[in-house]
């Protein structure tokens, strides 16, 4: 099946700063993708490139087999909820539904109505008087009723309390299950949320893709190994060290393994998704800090 999002050497530059650089990836259809990375990593830039709101500085990106934003047909197949969950403060909930119906040829009015009723939203309530969680749910209801093949969500739960966040994620999983082959890309800082709903991970740090693949496969490739103290350079070359910690007598490594683990007095366990993400982010931060110190010399 053709990749839903495929990028080759993709980059976006703002004045003298690269917001995204050398991005090459291929996201398959039917996945719920967790997009994770620190602030300024390039996550929002990637999503805005994918929906056609930005144009690349270098490289290429294709979405659903076409250039992003390539005509009304392409736009109708992609839903996008921006970081501030945009709704129109002066319009009522019902006004939003009517506006969505006029703007989207595949609009599912009954599905939108069901979501609004299930959420307990008053159709006559102005969006500006809704809570942050209600506005986020309204934005998701509008995006879902568009019936897109690809839904892009840029940190939609960042400002929500735990209950509102859980409700939003539940609605998201329902939407994903409604049609086979539908793809969702969810950007979030809350890794526990990604573990709950996502089956594919895309980690961006320092404007570059650092890790990508099905969550189960990525976890299966990594181990936390603990054993007698030794330098990382003493490990087998098929153990790529992501993170290391040492005491006087013991060493602990998080490694990506392409061969057998060390034998002898070594213990091994699988990391969870949060451990994996944090290890890669910590490594990139340490590398970045080391480069900064070198630049100052």
UniProtKB/TrEMBL annotation:
Give GO terms: molecular function aspect only: ATP binding
Listed CDD domains: ABC_DR_subfamily_A (cd03230)
Keywords assigned? ATP-binding, Nucleotide-binding, Transport
Q: Which Gene3D superfamilies match?
A: P-loop containing nucleotide triphosphate hydrolases
- Keyword Membrane in annotation: no
Q: What PROSITE patterns is this protein classified in? A: ABC_TRANSPORTER_2
Q: What is this protein called?
A: ABC transporter ATP-binding protein
